[in-house]
Every structure is written in C-alpha cells, then in structure tokens.
Design goal:
Its main location: membrane. The chain is about 65% helix and about 0% strand. The longest helix has 29 residues.
C-alpha cells in the first residue's frame, strides 16, 4: 500500500491521464446536454445516462497495460517470498480507490449539476461503485500473457454486457439464451438505478419507467415480497 499509492500518483497513465480523459468527455457531454437546452426530451436524458454508465465504465480497461507491467515486479517478489497474492491484490485495490473517487466526483460535478440531473449524491455513489467494479477487469491481467490480449478481451466483455443491460433491448425482449447476461452484468443494475432516480418524481415518465423495467424498482429495492 505504501508503495502502490505513490506509484499511482507518479505514473501518469494510472491516474492523471485517465483524469484528463474523463474530464474531456464529461465536459463534452456537459456542453451537449446543458439544462438550458430546451430541445432535449426525457428520452434524450436516457441516452445520456446510458452513455455515462456504459462508456465511462468501459474506459477503465485502458489502464490494464500498466497493471500488467507491474505484474512482472510482483512475480519476482512472489518468487522471493517477499510478497503474497492477497496483500498485493488488497494493496492495489485500496491504492486505486482515491483516484477512482476523484474521477467520479469530477464527472458527476460536470454532468449531474450542469445538466440538472436528480439525486447528485446517489449519482456520485452509483458512478463510483460502477468504476470500482469495473476495476475487476484488471483480473484479466493475471490470465493473459500480453496487454494487447487484455485490451481486446476487456472491451469485448463490456460490449457484450452493454447489449444485455436493458437499454438496447428491453429486459422482457431479451432472448432466453442471453437473459443471463442481463442478470450477471452490474451494468443492468447501475443503469436501472440511474433511470429510476432521474425519473422517479417526474409526472410524464411512466412510459420511460415501464420501457426500462423500473416502474416498481422502489418496491423491489426497499423490500418487495
């Protein structure tokens, strides 16, 4: 932990390059979906929520090559019995949390506030947890010999779950042989939560809530029987 945190700060590819990339994309989204744009409809906001949940999460894979480079150092230390797998994984996980939280705060501030989205705190929590779960794709680095293979596998998995999360094809219309992807992917729950918190208090949102299967999310979240 005492080594991973300074390394993450010094290495521009792990934190600072990601921060700049997320800032640029969030700023572009912000200027397109300004709350003063009266031409935007509620359906347009659903597209915004999908983009934020899907693409911002997918960009987490870009840091995979840097973690694979660190794997060689860990392999030497593991061979010398100076480090364990559990301590290495836990230290890496904890060291990445501050940077992920900073990215989530910046993206949420740029998008949720200026777009006038509802539930700023919930939006921040949802995006932060989604980015944390996306870091689990770093496990791909332990299974592939080269970062190019990891870069190919990571977006491939994320692309598959984007199709299954209930935006492009509603949950009720997903074929039985793909429905497992809907329930397995954390994208489904993250996107559904974004939609629910944005439209739960709107008066003309019934069609949107029903279309994305969120019309009874309040009862399901708080103990539906």
């Amino acid at each position: 932990m005492h080594r991973n945190t300074p390394n993450n700060i010094r290495n521009p590819g792990i934190c600072w390059t990601r921060l700049v990339r997320y800032f640029c994309l969030s700023f572009m989204v912000d200027t397109m979906y300004l709350s003063t744009n009266d031409d935007l409809t509620e359906e347009d906001l659903v597209l915004l929520l999908f983009y934020l949940q899907a693409f911002l999460v997918c960009m987490s894979v870009a840091v995979l090559p840097l973690f694979i480079e660190q794997r060689a150092v860990f392999a030497r230390e593991r061979a010398n019995s100076s480090s364990s797998v559990v301590s290495y994984v836990c230290a890496n996980f904890l060291a990445t949390l501050p940077g992920i939280f900073l990215i989530a705060v910046m993206s949420t501030t740029l998008v949720a506030l200026l777009e006038g989205l509802n539930a700023f705190e919930y939006f921040l929590l949802n995006l932060f947890l989604s980015l944390v779960v996306a870091e689990s794709m770093m496990h791909v680095g332990a299974a592939v010999p080269h970062y190019i293979i990891g870069i190919a596998l990571g977006p491939g998995v994320f692309g598959m779950v984007m199709l299954c999360e209930g935006f492009m094809v509603p949950c009720d219309s997903i074929p039985d042989y793909w429905i497992w992807g809907y329930y397995l992917a954390f994208h489904s729950y993250s996107f559904g939560s974004f939609v629910f918190k944005q439209f739960e208090n709107e008066t003309s949102d019934e069609g949107i809530m029903v279309a994305y299967g969120n019309e009874c999310m309040d009862t399901c979240v708080f103990g539906c029987t």
